[in-house]
Amino acid sequence: MHDLLLDIRYALRVLWKSPAFTLVALVTLMLGIGANVLVFGVVNAVLLHPLEVSAPQNLYQLRIGSWTSGKALTTSYPAFGDIQQRNTTFSDIGGFDGYCQARLRWGDAVRNVSGYAVTSNYFDLLAALILTLVSALLFGMIPARQVSQSSPLQAMKSGSVDSTRLRRFTLRDLLLGAQIAICTLLVTASLVAVRGMVRMLHAPLGFHPEGAMLANIDLSEIEQPGDALLVKKKAMLEAVRRIPGVTTAGEVNSVPFTGGLRGVPVFPPETTDFNLNNSVLAPYVFTMSPGYLKAAGTRLLTGRDVSWHDIKTTPYVAIVNQTFARKMWGETPAIGQRFILMDHLTEVVGVTEDGKYYEIMEPQQPVVFLPLLQTENAVAVFVVRTTRAQNEMVTALERTLSAIEPNALITVQTWPGAMARVLFPARAASVGLGVMGLLAAMLAVTGIFGMAAYNVSRRIKELGIRVALGARTKHVMSAAVGRPIVLLGLGSLAGLLLGVFASRLLEHVVYQANPRDPVVVVSAVLTMALLGIAASAIPSLRALAVDPSKLLREE
Predict the structure, then answer these.
(1) Which end of the chain, N or C, is surrounded by fewer C-beta atoms within 10 Å?
(2) C-alpha 249: how far from its chain's center?
(3) How confident is the model at residue 283 (pLDDT cuts 50, 70, 90)?
(4) SS3 372
């Protein structure tokens, strides 16, 4: 124990005498441990423990719904038992109700009350601590083993350098090259993420959420005889339009990215057998009122908007987007074309621009907009554009809608606020990759600087002799920092190749990720080059400032 304390005291004295080396070591450890905690926390939560069940990839969720009406169907425990007995596909079936929600009247308003359980990340930090200690012991034993095998006589010789050992790559060089490769990969990924974020912020959505507010109202638990529900929703929309400051307003069953019917089968007009195999398209379906397209900022390219005259006793009509029209009829004009949707022969009266409807990274999807008065739906979202302040409009919308239906659940928010939750995964991935890229850049700088500084300090007398013999500046620079620069080039090349191969993984988390983008590649190369220059600057200046006469006097 006494010897161990003496060794620790000696190590502290050495570190105190070499502040630059100590700073580099501390920064490297700090960044490495922080990155380990962050990466292991994400990997542990997402990959190692995605679900607290065995074989989660074999777990499926079954829902019961009607293709013809587009409505979800309720079920009962006896029906579940019957499904369980008739099952011949799955190993077992279980029923659950995983979302608990209650409605609470708070003053004059109705609010949702729900609860969730959370746990701490104790095991993430424990695993990072264990990994740090094991890494310190493992990599600390390697130089200790080299010292134990070295010759004391050789070590006592002043300034003796094994030139053959300097010429070949050592384990230290390989580790630095691997570090630079990983850092280049992370820098490339962060640049891809930033590039994808810029594309996402400027991507055409097919609507304009800026400056719009959403008022969600749920009438599913309020009994309405006949068409009274449709009449009440129309009255609500007219009342919202009369609010002072409202410039335009419309109603839709669900705004993009927040739900709606998906995969509803479409059949040709001559179809008599409505088997799913005979369907020709499965678009998204939205129900909207007149004026919704204007309120949402969606361009109507051809045809007309739906009107209050489109009711159940008149021919069924629909507005489709460009993708729907192209997939159904090619270059033939869509206006006047017909198809069967939800058991109704429907005529196209308008075509809108394409957009995003379910997720930001989806390809262009076919979409159908149906008139409000021709389709039953208990959920309504009022899209409102106003010149009034946000807090004033929230109060006005809640008061107006509650006056018509006091028992309905009403939620008012801005459309950009609702979009923030949808875009959070892509933004979080971009920010996370950006932070990892910054950490990687700092690790690359500390690694290259440490290697260059160590190389200069180890060969300081040799460099002095070169200067005394009249060596040129470029030769001194090559001898001083040539090896770190070579490792920087090789490691950066390997990291860029890894970044290209990682394109498939990045495409799942970053919008339009493309590591082969020339802008990304050039930016990554320039970034690593600047990092190499910055990290090698101080050791290079030290090598050029060598005074041969001073070294000879010390000798």
Answers:
(1) N
(2) 32
(3) very high
(4) helix
Backbone angles phi, psi at 521, to 5 degrees: -65, -45
Cα–Cα distance for residue pair 193/198, rounded to 1 Å:
9
Q: Where are the alpha helices (DSSP H) in 339-472?
A: 390-404, 415-458, 460-468
The answer to whether 278 and 271 are in contact (CB under 8 A) is yes
Residues in the chain: 555
246 three-state secondary structure: strand
Name the burial class of residue 443, with classes exposed (0-12), middle (13-18) and buried (19+) by CB atoms within 10 angstroms of its CB: buried
The pLDDT tens digits for 373-390 are 888 777 889 999 998 888
Task: Report CA dihedral (126, 130, 136, 138) to the nearest 10 degrees.
Answer: -160
Contacts with 391 (C-beta within 8 Å, 6 or more apart), sequence order: none
Evaluate whether 351 touches 293 at the Cβ level (below 8 Å).
no
Q: Are the beta carbons of 215 and 410 closer than 8 angstroms? A: yes
Q: What is the pLDDT of residue 237?
A: 93
List, in sequence order, every residue forming a beta bridge with 368; answer none if it has no partner. Answer: 285, 320
pLDDT tens-digit readout, 65-100? 655 445 555 667 777 778 878 888 877 777 765 545
| pTM for the predicted model, two decimal places | 0.61
Domain range annotation of the chain: 163-203+423-555, 220-407
- Token duo for residue 525: 């190369």
Q: What is the dihedral of CA 465, 471, 473, 474, to 10 degrees?
A: -110
For 518, list phi and psi in degrees, rounded to 5. Answer: -55, -35
DSSP code for 52: S
Distance CA 380, CA 386 (A): 19
Answer yes or no: are the C-beta atoms of 317 and 347 closer than 8 Å.
yes
